[in-house]
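FORM 12-B: Structure-to-Sequence Request
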């Protein structure tokens, strides 16, 4: 599935996919893998959902208004000091907005993992030869083979 996600992100970055098409495709991939029980043979982290997608924007108020008017998303929480707003429905965060160039770029997506425990997930990732990192922009994350940032969070 990783090559498919990488291809989708590349197509989005080149303008061949809209944001809506990318998010829809990622949701279908996550749902299809969960429904079919398809996982990598060595996978120990059980992905359960796309938790959220983070979009870089130029004008926070304008973007909050857009996602509210068009998709009915409401402000779940905001980190004004770091210029981050989290929007969602029913209290579940779906889109994270961050004021930072270049605008219009999806800078990361988050996969929700069943039974998330930071120490256990860190050990699993290290078993794959990965070193997780954490920062304000991407949270607890790793990079895929092509450098896409994948945040790992609880479901």
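FORM 12-B RESPONSE
SEQUENCE OUT:
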């Amino acid at each position: 599935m990783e090559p498919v996600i990488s291809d989708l992100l590349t197509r989005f970055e080149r303008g061949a996919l809209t944001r809506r098409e990318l998010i829809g495709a990622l949701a279908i991939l996550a749902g299809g893998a969960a429904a079919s029980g398809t996982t990598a043979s060595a996978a120990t982290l059980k992905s359960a959902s796309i938790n959220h997608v983070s979009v870089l924007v130029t004008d926070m108020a304008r973007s909050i208004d857009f996602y509210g008017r068009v998709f009915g998303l409401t402000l779940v929480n905001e980190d004004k000091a770091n210029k981050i707003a989290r929007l969602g429905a029913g209290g579940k965060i779906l889109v994270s907005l961050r004021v930072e160039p270049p605008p219009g770029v999806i800078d990361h997506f988050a996969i929700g993992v069943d039974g998330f425990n930071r120490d256990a997930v860190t050990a699993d990732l290290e078993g794959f030869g990965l070193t997780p990192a954490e920062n304000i922009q991407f949270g607890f994350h790793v990079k895929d083979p092509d450098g896409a940032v994948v945040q790992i969070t609880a479901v």
